[in-house]
């Protein structure tokens, strides 16, 4: 099975909470089971500079400092996945930002919960638009 030409790519991160809980493989499994292709997979310790850039759209929000701190608290699994409509497709696999409300069947709905901490721990990041995907892939995987 192959995709049409000019297919899409997205950046997925298994956040430190997901790596710590041993769910990196489960996220990869769901991406592959859905039929998307893995282009890059790398375990990375992100620093604050990279994370502040990654979350530039959230500059000034009260949850940004604890978010960056949480994202730097351990390694993340950085993934580039490819396929027709993979950006919205992975967002659909991930489920809603709030894991309490995320639908069962989604990564966040099945595997994450709200622990009442300053940052919502919801296991995964996925690019939210073609513009975000291009920016984020260039940031995390400049060689691609
Ligand atoms: P997304 O990851 O579903 O795209 P965004 O709104 O881009 O959600 O927020 C980035 C991340 O910041 C979320 O995944 C979550 O970990 C955290 N976050 C978002 N909103 C809040 C909030 O209101 N309080 C605490 N943490 C938040
Ligand atoms: Mg987002």
Can you characterise this structure?
The protein has 144 residues and is an alpha+beta fold. It has seven helices and four strands. The protein has helices at residues 16-20, 24-34, 48-54, 64-71, 86-94, 107-111, 130-140, and strands spanning 8-14, 37-44, 76-83, 124-126. A four-stranded antiparallel β-sheet has the order 2-3-1-4. The longest helix has 11 residues, at 24-34. It is globular and about 45 Å long. The model has no long low-confidence stretch (mean pLDDT 97). The protein binds inosine-5'-diphosphate (IDP) and magnesium ion. Inosine-5'-diphosphate is lined by residues 63, 67, 97, 119-120, 122, 125, 128.
Gist?
With 144 residues, the chain is α+β, with helices and mostly antiparallel strands. 39% of the residues lie in helices and 18% in strands.
Global morphology? globular
- Pattern of helices and strands: EHHEHHEHHEH
Radius of gyration: 14 Å
Report the β-strand fraction as a percent range. 15-25%
Number of helices: 7
Mean pLDDT: 97
Q: Please list the strands of the largest sheet in the order they lie side by side.
A: 2-3-1-4
Q: Helical proportion?
A: 25-40%
For the sheet with most strands, the description reads:
4 strands, antiparallel
What is the straight-line distance between the termini? 23 Å
Unreliable residue stretches:
none
Write out the distinct hetero groups bound to the structure. inosine-5'-diphosphate, magnesium ion
Task: Please identify the structural class as seen in this structure.
Answer: alpha+beta
Total count of strands: 4
Secondary structure elements and their pairing?
Elements: E1 8-14, H1 16-20, H2 24-34, E2 37-44, H3 48-54, H4 64-71, E3 76-83, H5 86-94, H6 107-111, E4 124-126, H7 130-140
Antiparallel strand pairs: 1-3, 1-4, 2-3
Bound molecules: inosine-5'-diphosphate and magnesium ion.
The site of inosine-5'-diphosphate (IDP) has 8 residues, from loops.
């Amino acid at each position: 099975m192959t995709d049409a030409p000019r297919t899409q790519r997205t950046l997925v991160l298994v956040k430190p909470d997901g790596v710590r809980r041993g769910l990196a493989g489960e996220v990869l499994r769901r991406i592959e089971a859905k039929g998307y292709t893995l282009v890059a997979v790398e375990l990375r310790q992100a620093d604050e500079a990279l994370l502040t850039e990654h979350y530039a759209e959230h500059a000034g929000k009260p949850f940004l400092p604890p978010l960056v701190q949480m994202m730097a608290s351990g390694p993340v699994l950085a993934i580039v996945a490819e396929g027709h409509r993979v950006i919205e497709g992975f967002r659909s696999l991930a489920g809603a930002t709030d894991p309490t409300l995320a639908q069962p069947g989604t990564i966040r709905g099945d595997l994450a919960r709200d622990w009442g901490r300053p940052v919502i721990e919801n296991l995964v990041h996925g690019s939210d638009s073609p513009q975000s995907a291009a920016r984020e892939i260039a940031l995390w995987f400049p060689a691609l």
